[in-house]
Specification:
Helices cover 33% and strands 21% of the residues. The chain is α/β, with parallel strands linked by helices. It has a nine-stranded mixed sheet with strand order 4-5-7-6-8-9-10-11-12, sandwiched between helices. The protein has a three-stranded antiparallel sheet with strand order 1-2-3, with helices on one face.
């Protein structure tokens, strides 16, 4: 899939590969003011973006192919965050050539607005890169997939241990396997473009610690190395939850893509097959697909999708906890009017977070 481009739309005149082309984004500075608020300052900007919450930098080390890399993730903390009180947490990653800094620049103001308005429960958002360092960025987007797979199956565990041993989540500072499984209802993973592809890998190969999945503008590349047909892709993508005897109530996938994004043509056949082959597992509730009218493969699209997905994840996790406890479910919240719900054949579409 593509990258987070600086323009509001992406025009491809030279075919699929040009669709992934990108120019580097400007450097971003996160400055904490005396009053505790954070200001995002893009290079050469005269209009800094104030945040009600704050952004921290978290350092960690990751070994990859025998080399240990020093890495950083950015952690958005809402103004309502209080150390010692648990918060939901979402991990986000980017597309080809992008970075954690670009994601935080684009997405955190939208998340901050939701937090400030009370539309979401207190949610920590972690912006992480799958590149060991910038030397891995090149002009062939397909080479990223090896890094996507590694991040989904290995590095994400390192990152969870680093972040959730420091901040107050529902794991309670305990990052053992048992604790992370018990708190998975409060944890989500998402990404845009190659980050969306990474998200499908997390769902397929590493679903123990996550309840919510937010693949944006990216299909699954599971089975790509052996040209798997669609029914086999459906088998491989769902194998992780099926082998763990998970049902449709044990996860929520909220997939989205713009109506004018070339990724729509890649995602549609897979999504239809998931519905067709596993109708009791991939239901309109457990697999929600939203198409943004007029949406493109762009940074603004990533921003809009991330904010709305975090809102739906927050509502879904609260509602399902109520249901599991035998309590009355919370009401749904309306989805933006420019989004349409893609339902399997014969299912009534609803413009609400399910």
């Amino acid at each position: 899939m593509g990258t987070l481009v600086a323009a509001t739309s992406l025009v491809s005149a030279a075919g699929y590969e040009a669709y992934h082309a990108s120019a580097p984004s400007p450097t971003v500075t996160h400055h904490e003011k005396a009053d505790g608020t954070t200001v995002i300052i893009p290079a050469a900007s005269e209009n800094p973006i104030p945040l009600h919450g704050r952004i921290d930098t978290v350092d960690y080390q990751q070994e990859y192919q025998g080399v240990t890399y020093k890495k950083q993730a950015l952690v958005y903390l809402p103004a309502t965050y209080v150390q010692g009180m648990p918060a939901n947490i979402a991990y986000l990653t980017h597309g080809w050539m992008s970075s954690a800094e670009e994601m935080a620049d684009e997405v955190s103001p939208a998340i901050d607005d939701l937090e400030r308005s009370g539309e979401v429960s207190p949610t920590i958002v972690v912006f992480a890169t799958y590149y060991p360092d910038r030397s891995f960025v090149n002009d062939d987007f397909e080479t990223d997939y090896q890094l996507n797979r590694f991040f989904a199956t290995s590095e994400i565990n390192t990152l969870i241990d680093t972040v959730e041993s420091r901040y107050s989540t529902y794991a309670g500072g305990d990052t053992t396997d048992e604790s992370l499984k018990a708190s998975r209802m409060h944890r989500a993973f998402g990404g845009f473009s190659m980050g969306g592809i990474t998200t499908w890998d997390v769902f397929a190969l590493n679903p123990d610690y996550f309840y919510g999945y937010m693949p944006m503008a990216g299909e699954s590349w599971i089975g790509r190395d052996h040209d798997a047909p669609l029914p086999q892709i459906a088998d491989e993508v769902t194998l992780g939850v099926r082998s763990r005897n998970m049902g449709q109530q044990d996860f929520r996938i909220i997939a989205s893509v713009g109506s004018d994004d070339p990724a729509l043509d890649d995602m549609n056949p897979q999504l239809d097959e998931f519905y067709r082959k596993y109708p009791t597992l991939m239901t309109p509730q457990s697999l929600q697909v939203w198409i943004d009218e007029g949406g493109t493969h762009s940074r603004p699209q990533f921003r809009a999708s991330s904010a709305t997905h975090c809102r739906c994840f927050s509502r879904a996790s609260r509602r399902d906890r109520h249901q599991q406890a035998g309590l009355t479910p919370l009401g749904d919240i309306a989805y933006p009017k420019n989004r349409s719900f893609k339902a399997p054949t014969g299912v009534n579409a609803s413009k609400r977070c399910q």
